[in-house]
Amino acid sequence: MMAASLTATPDGGWQLAGDLDFNSVPDIWDRLAPLVEQRHELSLSLREVGRTNSAALALLVEALDHARRHGCRLQFSDLPADLLDLARMSRCDTLLQG
């Protein structure tokens, strides 16, 4: 299991890494929510994300809603295939890829 992290990237974006599950998502949310509140735009790469489950999907959907409420344009890139599959089954894949 890889510990989840949220770090700034040299290009001004942010990167999620590690496993996003029921144990790690609350800590990631505590770091992500203030970032969304402080910015007009936020780019978040999931290239280094390992295992995911429905908690990861809930995190991303909630982050999008939080961003909308705070006037932030949030974009995801490099979504893991298993997370996209889960999003498709939940009929929210267009939200994540929009």
What is the strand content?
A: 25-35%
The CATH topology name reads Transcription Regulator spoIIAA
CATH class call: Alpha Beta
- Terminus-to-terminus distance: 30 Å
Taking all Cα atoms into account, the compactness measure Rg is 12 Å
The best one-word shape is: globular
Structural class: alpha/beta
Mean pLDDT: 95
Tally of alpha and pi helices:
4
Task: Walk me through this protein's architecture.
It is built from 4 helices and 4 strands. The chain is an alpha/beta fold and 98 residues long. The N and C termini lie far apart (30 Å). The chain has a single domain (5-97), classed as STAS domain (Transcription Regulator spoIIAA, 2-Layer Sandwich). It has helices at 25-38, 54-69, 81-89, 93-97, and strands spanning 5-8, 14-20, 41-52, 73-77. The model has no long low-confidence stretch (mean pLDDT 95). Helix 1 (25-38) packs parallel to helix 2. The chain has a 4-stranded mixed sheet, covered by helices on one side.
List keywords for this structure.
45% helix, four-stranded mixed beta sheet, alpha/beta, Transcription Regulator spoIIAA, 98 residues
Short summary:
With 98 residues, the chain is of the alpha/beta class. The chain has four helices and four strands; from the N terminus they run E-E-H-E-H-E-H-H.
